[in-house]
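In this supplementary section we document a worked example of the pipeline. Step one takes a protein sequence of length 194 as its only input; no multiple sequence alignment statistics are reported here. Step two produces a three-dimensional model, which step three serialises into structure tokens for compact storage. The input and output of this example are shown verbatim.
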Amino acid sequence: MRTWLQVHHVAWSALSLAMTAGVVAVAGDVLVPVPNLSQGDLDGVPLALIAPLAASAVLVRGVYAGPADLEAVAVRPTGAYRAGLVAAACAATLLAGLLLTATVPYGTAAARNLAGFTGLALVASRWRRDAATGVPTAYMIAAMLLGGGSGTGSPWDWAITDSPGLSSWAAPATALALGLLTCSVFPGRERAPS
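The serialised model returned by step three reads:
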């Protein structure tokens, strides 16, 4: 088990989650100015909602870091280990966001974004592993450019809204569920030789 944890960079994933939590806590109401194409003016998106992209990228890269051909014939359930790692990371982040919701303004929204971005990345990695970090980033950029700075409350712009409503959790929860399914049940393609 120790070897699996080292090969899949669990320590780096934990460090990136801790650093992202620090950025979310310190960032507060710091806004990243973004042009809004639908309204024609300059909007701001909270930095705390963008920061989970980095932790998601490190987590998903670690999940798929092991040699796919060896994991495909492993006796141990490596798919369950991968899904467990992702589920534990997202659950710990959500718990921290809920516990600190009084002091960290975007804690739960950042945890939601981590879950959604990670789910999108896991689904994208089923198609191509190198697309795993690009798809959530492209989704975030599209949401920032086409949605309002504070989010319109539509199900598609969940990444830029700090709304605690169920509609903002539907798409990220679905993406995470599909991502966990794809990384546990379907081991994925072998990586192309480098």
